[in-house]
Amino acid sequence: MWNLPAEAAGRLGAVPDNNGGCTFRVWAPRAQSLELEFAESGKRFDLLAAGEGYFAARLDSVPPGALYWYRFPDGRRRPDPASRSQPRGVHGPSAVVSLDYRWRDRGWKGCVLEDLVFYELHAGAFTHQGSFDAIHPRLRELRELGITALELMPVAQFPGTRNWGYDGAFPYAVQHSYGGPSALMRLVEAAHRARLAVFLDVVYNHLGPEGNYLSEFGPYFTEIYKTPWGAALNYDGAESDHVRRYFIANALEWVRDYHLDGLRLDAIHGIVDHSATPFLAELAEAAQQEGMRLGRRVQVIAESNLNDSRVLRSRSSGGLGMDAQWSDDFHHALHTALTGECEGYYADFHGAADLPHAIEQGYVYQGQYSIYRRRRHGNSTRGIPPQRFVICAQNHDQVGNRAGGERLSVLVGLEALKLAALAWLAAPQLPLLFMGEEYGEPAPFLYFIEHGDPGLVEAVRRGRHEEFADFQWPEPPDPQSPATFAASRLNWHLRRRSPHRELLAFHRELLRLRRRYPALAAGGRARCERAGNEGFWVLRTPAKAGTPRALIAMNFHHGALQLRFPFPGQFRWLLATGDRRWKGPGAALPRRLERGVEMALPAWSGAAYLEVENSRKSQATHRPRN
């Protein structure tokens, strides 16, 4: 794929073999020579030039766990850029790791795109133990909830023991405080046994500022472009083929050696690349083909705020060929409808009035003028199936990038929380729940770090203050404080208490209905009919021909809304958010709907109905003649 000399094209980093030896390979065109130094014995060995700026050597009798550095001619000792383990942190030596795990998930083939229901979690805050192994006891419960895929926030080695993961400095190394490589493999295997796919959030738009030594080895970065995180990664300049190789090989390793079912690419709008063959298209193709080679479904999902449908369009038509992408517009429209907030990027959204666009088309902005950006924004999604978009009511960004890290559970009441959940059931896109959302976790999800450089810590603090200048929010907590991280952990015991217990049961029922009725699953078509500015109907037509349609009514208003049913056909009651079984106030809603029937939908509530089979055919047969 990368058109490199055969010897230089071997696997990067320290790769043990079956004979007890280990091959070390590094791309370091800025080094005249390099030595391999073992941290515990101090023994040094020359690395041999292998062409194109690569250095390599094979040594006998190198056990897994051996600690090593790369030593420059001036005496600098640096960790391996492709280190797979940093047990002493980002500034310490690298450790040799064997990726030869005895997998017991051979029957697992992954999930089809339409069946994905994501559950985003942070491995450190999901449990009080903060480890991969501590997640295992919760897997069956998540599957019974209706989740089909875990989405792990980044696990690449970062400074300290607490961090969101987007400050990772070693893309190949699994965070040691979570348990390291073998613990991640155990988690993936356990998830597959529980019939859960595992996706990993990977960060290929920047590296964290602390422990980032890549520039000392080669031109991994370019000063031509700037990003919010500093110099951009070099994906289209001189020697960029090798930079691409570094990250694409990393993506393939997650798929091949860790059996991951997919990757979520962080903020691809932060990747600047003007080459004829975009890095992102090459990356997506490589990961998808690796999945095919292994006989498993592997999906690549992008996060992008550009509203550019080329992310999803085929590579043959000039697109990137991603399997799916996050839809910020759905979240923003839903959030403004629920909270009334209109600061910052929420200024572009008008609450419930914008939700039909997001439900029907994926993007709200498809070329219209954006007040927040002060320019036109987005392009058309015509021809793109709805299951190519991932939607949510909350995620780590939208919660954690608030000054106080408030979840919806503390911003709105119980009825609005249930209505928010019904909104993603009404949409034909792929739903994502943020950890704890299913039972209304009240703990915040704050921004937390543990950097060792006092100057960097202070810079992060200033940056957080400046970030919220467009919002009328209080001062954010200190991201460096251990208390900030501790406050962000989930309180699992709340699931057994009211009203959290009822909210959990409500989410479980929504996901059960989604599995049972094709009209409520991803795909098909959605047609929205507004009822005033705060309410609307959603008619869901399933992709599976011959199956009944679904109907969902929603009221995002402080008062009751009088609705007249506008569609042909007859529909029977399935669920209402205000039912007393979900701690609702109760409401007398029609058990059946047909054109012209009126209903009074209470404030902050919704109801779901399913078409009575053959009702359309019957109606057509008995239609009176003029």
Question: How are the SSEs placed, and which strands pair?
Answer:
Elements: E1 13-16, E2 22-27, E3 35-38, E4 44-46, E5 48-51, E6 54-59, E7 67-71, E8 77-78, E9 94-95, E10 118-121, H1 139-145, E11 149-152, E12 156-157, E13 170-174, H2 180-193, E14 197-202, H3 214-217, E15 221-227, E16 230-233, H4 240-257, E17 262-265, H5 279-294, E18 299-302, E19 324-326, H6 328-339, H7 355-361, E20 368-370, E21 375-377, E22 389-392, H8 396-400, H9 408-411, H10 414-426, E23 430-434, H11 454-467, H12 482-486, H13 500-516, E24 525-531, E25 535-541, E26 550-555, E27 561-564, E28 571-576, E29 592-593, E30 598-601, E31 605-611, H14 615-621
Parallel strand pairs: 10-11, 10-23, 11-14, 14-17, 17-18, 18-19, 19-22, 22-23
Antiparallel strand pairs: 1-2, 2-6, 3-4, 3-7, 5-6, 7-8, 7-9, 12-13, 15-16, 20-21, 24-25, 25-26, 26-31, 27-30, 28-29, 28-31
Helix pairs in contact: 4-5, 10-13
CATH homologous superfamily classification of the largest domain: Glycosidases
**SS-derived structural category:** alpha/beta
- Based on CA atoms alone, the radius of gyration comes out at 26 Å
CATH architecture of the largest domain: Alpha-Beta Barrel
Mean pLDDT, rounded to whole units? 94
Task: Please tally the helical runs, counting DSSP H or I stretches of 4 or more residues.
Answer: 14
Q: How would you classify the quaternary structure?
A: single chain
- In helices, the fraction of residues equals 10-25%
Distance between the termini: 68 Å
